Amino acid sequence: MMEKCNNNKSFIMFSLLFCFLLFPHLLLSLENDYVRAPVRQLVTTQNQRSDSDPQQVHISLVGKDKIRVSWITEDKHTQSLVEYGTNSGKYSSKATGTHTSYQYFLYTSGRIHNTVIGPLEPSTTYFYRCGGSGPEFSFKTPPSKFPIEFAIVGDLGQTEWTQSTLKHVDSTNYDVFLLPGDLSYADSQQPLWDSFGRLVEPYASKKPWMVTQGNHEIETFPIIYPHGFKAYNNRWLMPFEESGSTSNLYYSFEVVGSHIIMLGSYTDFDDKSEQYKWLQSDLDSVDRSRTPWVIALLHAPWYNTNEAHQGEGESMRQAMEKLLYDANVDLVFAGHVHAYERFTRIYDNEANSCGPLYVTIGDGGNREGLALNFKNPPSPLSLYREPSFGHGRLQILNETHAHWSWYRNNDTNSFVADGVWIQSLFSSKACTQNPEKQTSHEEL
Ligand SMILES: *[C@@H]1O[C@H](CO)[C@@H](O)[C@H](O)[C@H]1NC(C)=O
Ligand SMILES: *[C@@H]1O[C@H](CO)[C@@H](O)[C@H](O)[C@H]1NC(C)=O
Ligand SMILES: [Fe+2]
């Protein structure tokens, strides 16, 4: 980078100024001894299989004991058939789902297949094949009892950093992958969605990937595509109908003592909106004796001390924070800001031992690079902040204790840079029996 700045002595002042205007992060790397990870190259993956073979295979949880297998074929006649079983090469069961495709300007997608399989046994490895041909895939179902482990990372993209993050995520065991928005960074270039699907297939075909949308999924175009999310909704179908939602942009699901709520930062959220009403009834339906942990994910953070994206989650916070607080939601994960930040438990901008703990984890490795500047002086609500690529792990050990850790990418390896024990709010009488907190919404 520095060579770009000292190639012409007579214009050194001008070029320095110009350089810093173009590459403001250089100023920062001069300020700090520690040089932050630079942006890495885009990785595009080609289809190596035949047209009728599955590509971009990924799985997601549906209901108590089912899994949705999603994949794409170039061939428009392939059936949405999934054959599966617990022995490799011997498929004792099969299911047929549905298929669709979409158009975006001159681009026409391949045939997008969605097939729900099950009921499946917990903690069991299943082998499966899609569309009657092509490679065999396998996945392991989540357990039926604690402990359970979630890998969490947002703003993934498809760069060499994305690859290293995914390798680190994969290097130790976990049960379910959670992604708080910004997947492919296709930004309307539809073939990049296909490329992303192929990049993540080795991971997303063997563990359930539960995702919610980010701003890079919007892809609206005036008059022609006013509602947006065309590629996202077609390619990343989540169990919204199964959770009483009318939109793929927000839904919930349950797995081993955890009720996980995926919210939509880029659809209506005010108190008259469908999403708000759905969230209210979803929270009312939570049975804490079945799911002592309640966790929410969304894209634009409600709490953020980075200079990037300041205030972008604020109107959603004002609309929905009280619902989450009243319902004793334990944790809220966000993405959007390309850095890691962990807060204390908060309600309405103040530390509150009965509020959710907030984490921003938008550091998956996308092509836009890191959000380097945190505001100073640091807020007492923010307990750890660092602009590095990495991923997080939430291990829920039992109904009262969980451990959160953040792994910083260190080139070919990664290591734990932050960690904290978390106690469920369900286990705190001070929070669950607090008359100040409404446990129902009868007055509305
Ligand atoms: C839950 O796990 C924590 C941490 O391992 C342990 O200290 C605690 O005793 C466990 N509680 C129960 C009820 O098993
Ligand atoms: C980070 O990577 C460097 C270079 O590969 C290595 O020397 C160092 O030990 C690593 N640090 C940790 C904590 O793994
Ligand atoms: Fe974003």
Automatic annotation (TrEMBL):
InterPro entries cross-referenced by the UniProt entry: Calcineurin-like_PHP, Metallo-depent_PP-like, MPP_PAP, PAPs-like, PAPs_C, PAPs_N, Purple_acid_Pase-like_N
Signal sequence extent: 1-29
Residues annotated as domain Calcineurin-like phosphoesterase: 150-340
Coiled coil location: none
SUPFAM superfamilies referenced in this protein's UniProt entry, alphabetically: Metallo-dependent phosphatases, Purple acid phosphatase, N-terminal domain
GO-annotated molecular function: acid phosphatase activity; metal ion binding
EC code(s) of this entry: 3.1.3.2
One Pfam family per UniProt: Metallophos_C
Keywords: Glycoprotein, Hydrolase, Signal, Zinc
Protein name: Purple acid phosphatase
Organism of derivation: Lupinus luteus (European yellow lupine)
